[in-house]
Amino acid sequence: MTDTDLLNQIIETEATLVFPHFDEMTALSIGQTLVADGLAKALPIVIDIRTPDATLFHAALPGSAPDNDEWARRKSNVTLRCHTSSYAVGLKCKIKGTAQAELGLPLADFAIHGGSVPVRLRGGRVVAAVTVSGLPQAEDHAMVIAALTAELARLA
């Protein structure tokens, strides 16, 4: 699969992840799903769910490091600023041959690596970012997509 094919797949998947509502209890449910999955597979990950102004859920599983917290913060900043997944932003840059700095996203506060996915409400408004850090970027991203998909099925 080419990077363009992967980007298109990510964009299509994100378009299906539209929530009827999102609040602290929804964040808790998504976070608990990610924790259960991470513990079951003994994954050394950090899970972070935040809005632009509050952290709604945060967990560091055994084997994770403080650096994972920093990566989660930086990836979620990308998602909350660009209203798309951090993986999609990174792929767009790779395809266009542009550097992160050209987007006006300083490395100290932003990371265009996979693992953060927007929570989008009906009408298109992005209200939060769900982020996993500690695995290769495609795996971080896939974990979040699976948890969001499960939560939408639960809400249906």
TrEMBL record:
Spans traversing the lipid bilayer: none
InterPro entries according to UniProt: PduO/GlcC-like, PduO/GlcC-like_sf, YBR137W-like
SUPFAM superfamilies, A to Z: GlcG-like (SSF143744)
Gene3D superfamilies cross-referenced by the UniProt entry: Haem-degrading domain (3.30.450.150)
Residues annotated as signal peptide: none
One Pfam family hit: HbpS-like
NCBIfam families for the chain: PRK02487.1-5 (NF002696)
Protein name: Heme-degrading domain-containing protein
Organism of provenance: Pseudotabrizicola algicola
Lineage: Bacteria, Pseudomonadati, Pseudomonadota, Alphaproteobacteria, Rhodobacterales
